[in-house]
Design brief:
Aminopeptidase, seven-stranded mixed β-sheet, 10 helices, disordered C terminus, 36% helix, alpha+beta, 15 strands, 2 domains
Length: 340
Amino acid sequence: MHSTPTIDKKTWNSLVHHPMQSWEWGEVKKRVGTPIVRYAYVEDENPTAFLMTMHPVPLLGVMAYCGRSAWPTNKQAQGIYTYLREKGCMMAKFEPALVTEEAGKYQIPLLNRSFTIDHIRYTQSRSTIFAPHTFTLNLAFTKEELLSHMKSKTRYNIGLATRKGVVVRDTTEEPKSLEEFFDLYRQTSTRQRYFGRNRDYMKTLWDELGGTMARIYTAYYQGMPLSSYMIFYFKQGAYYVYGGSSAQHKEVMASNLLMWEAILDAKKRGCTEFDMWGALPLQHNPHNPWAGFHRFKEGFGGRHRTFIPALDMVLDPFKYWLFDVGWPIRNALLGITSRL
């Protein structure tokens, strides 16, 4: 394993395949105060790179987190294990960009909650960062084919928004772009009672990625911004990462037209896939607070995909046991707080 502080951005990005592993995302995390570790396996049978963020866990030490990376080979995992133990980490959480049907290819025994590979213990995690499901659209289809794959209600709503006079613009280069986006994003997080990113975080992210890896699209009705999305672009993928909408004028279906226009722009930019960035299981409680988001995304006709579970590489067994027990309690308390 190579700790390669001199590796350049171009080489790094040639080794990774997801925006959360990109060089640019590492720069964002550094600027918001999160320590990072970059490891590249350049001269390797399976060249790849791993961006890890380092997070203090009160009383227990440090957790390393590696989101939407490749799954490390046994040799690579041994190097990561040794390095992180030397740094005093008690665990490393992996949420690889690997769907369940690929688990067998990498010999990951998902039928067991805990298992050992080459003397390293892994546990299917009770604490996840990413949603384990998503919808993805294949942008190789024509515009007409993409429309035909949608649910009829979604197609109708797109047409309705157009008839009502909703206008969608790529506002990336406009001075008020981020401010309009963040206002709608904050309205949504407050309305849905989830913990969103604060203004300083979003400004830092936009300063680093805006106009290069990220673009903002906003839907207007009678001059009023009703819905706004921040789309990430990396290689041939487009990702719907952040979004927000107003509670006003829901009847004009601005979000439906906004998503459609974002999809079309991604296709024009040469992307081959559009990732909706999160969904519920296909079989889910219709009263789930996220069911509305799921139905909205489902309406665009994408393929439902399930990632392998988050896997924790156990570095300190006792401290990890304490973490594993305590994390669900922490989440329950945060859930109570968010409803106050």
